[in-house]
Amino acid sequence: MRSECPPDPPPPASGPGRLTLETLEGALVASGASVARRKPWQGGTLLELVECLWDPMHHRSARVILHASGAVSAGCFH
Fold first, then answer.
1. Is the CB of residue 47 less than 8 Å from the CB of residue 64?
2. This model's pTM is above 0.70
């Protein structure tokens, strides 16, 4: 017999279970990161960082994305 897991519920459009851009940006700044600029990214928002979170020798190549779904991703082009 095979059991299947139900799909994850969609994230809330707003409210306490939804990460806001302001909360994400505030957490980055509180951790020492500096945001160089914000720009739209496929329905979400991309935060371009002044320095890479993993290697401060890399400037303006790192990003954190808050996707339209509420998911967060981060990376650097180094």
1. yes
2. yes
Cα Rg of the chain (Å, integer): 15
Structure tokens at 59: 């400037």
Q: Which residues contact 29 (CB under 8 A, 6 or more apart)?
A: 35
Q: Which residues pair with 62 in a beta bridge?
A: 49, 76
Find the distance separating the first CA and the last CA of the chain, reported in whole Å: 47
Report the alpha-carbon angle 54-55-57, nearest 5. Answer: 160
Locate tokens 């505030």: which residue?
A: 26
CA 62 to chain CA centroid, Å, is 11
Query: What per-residue confidence (pLDDT) applies to 1?
Result: 47
Exposure string of 17-33, with b = 16+ CB inside 10 Å and e = fewer, is eeeeeeebbeebeeeeb
Tokens of 28: 């980055």
